[in-house]
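Entry type: protein chain
Record version: 2
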Amino acid sequence: MKLLLAVLAAVLVVAVVVVMVRRLRATDRTAAAPAPRDPFAPEDSTAGDPRTLKAGDMVEYLGERLFVRGSLRLSEGGYSWSEHFLDPMEDTGEGRRWLSVEEDPTLEVVLWSAYTGDELTPSRPTLTVQGVTYHRSEHGTASYRSEGTTGLGATGRMEYADYDGPGGRSLAFERFFGDQGRGSWEASLGERVPDGTLTIYPGSGT
């Protein structure tokens, strides 16, 4: 009888061990299974997230490094986007540029430079500039908050008009409201920054 009880006890212990091992293996498999992820998420296509850019950071694009001198945080209704003013580490003749970052609904990053040709205003739905035809896509007013060096006050309002062109090219107009009313239109030409071509170096204190 004692021998039978001992055998039953040993079988019970083995069964408990088997159940525990199986549970541990199932837990390991569950923990190892990756969570669903967006294959086009910005952190997978760039070194750093453009949505976190701020004054003091540095970006590298196609071998050129530029400092973020300041940022504008813009909002219109429930929609928001950012513009970051850049200065190159070396004088390339391009002058100051800026980087716009918005989600509409996918992440769009555009590098802009000032248009320096003949006077240009968003007076028509279609404009041809330097042989490229652009079609107006948006027009409105927005509030902004300024950070770092932008040449603007801490807060204010502005008007914009955006035009889309072929091959990821864009034409944009902006004018800022001040004590003297609405300022003059400033025109800019932009090119979409392809995924994987922008690297972000956070500034000190990040």
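Comment: The radius of gyration is 28 Å.
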